[in-house]
């Protein structure tokens, strides 16, 4: 009896300590080149970056693909250990989660039909139907402009479809993913705007100081040894 009991205990401990070597990382894979699906597999800049971080800190990375607005709640309830999702660090989000050092600088842009000439800056969005993705920083930005008819979509592909089918006049999105969407969808173009710079970082549940520190150390090494630049060239050239 005792033997069985200790065997069971041993197994449980094994499972627990094995579990400790895994980091569950949430993302939302509709944000190329940062994270997207290729033949059903989640790939991209962020995915490679977080796997390198995992290697450095000796943890196995397991990626979970969920909706963008579900990511931070999942962190807060410990269903995820980390989030990497081209996520902008904002003061509002910092109330709920902690962020690593930033690893990428981005801007919002406007996507419009190629033939449009009326939308040239943020101001010209007034009176227009503008698609945003629920909870993205672009959603927040548009909310601050008065007189815009903002239409929220649950996903980036949904918003792009609304634009290509003429349901909306424009869409707001981060510059790099906007670039990849206009390659995939003919007849669209990008209007650059003078929007505030945004910094992408890895989100961690509040108070996990050691984890954040080890991630920052890993990020620093990844930059210093040139791995970061290789990833930039791979995904942005
Ligand atoms: N940078 C924007 C934000 O933080 C959009 C991020 C969307 N990322 C994604 N993987 N879908 O709100």
Q: Main traits of this protein?
A:
237 residues, alpha/beta, D-Maltodextrin-Binding Protein, domain 2, 2 domains, 5-stranded mixed β-sheet, 39% helix, elongated, binds arginine
Contiguous low-pLDDT stretches (5 residues minimum) are none
Bound molecules: arginine
Task: Please state the CA-atom Rg, rounded to the nearest Å.
Answer: 20 Å
The total beta strand count reads: 13
CATH superfamily of the largest domain: Periplasmic binding protein-like II
Silhouette: elongated
| CATH architecture name of the largest domain | 3-Layer(aba) Sandwich
Total number of domains: 2
**Looking across the biggest beta sheet, what order are the strands in?**
5-1-6-13-7
General description of the model:
The chain has 237 residues and is an alpha/beta fold. 39% of the residues lie in helices and 28% in strands. The protein has 8 helices and 13 strands. A 5-stranded mixed sheet has the order 5-1-6-13-7, sandwiched between helices. Helix 2 packs across helix 7. It is elongated, with a radius of gyration of 20 Å. The model has no long low-confidence stretch (mean pLDDT 93). The structure holds arginine. Arginine binds next to strand 2.
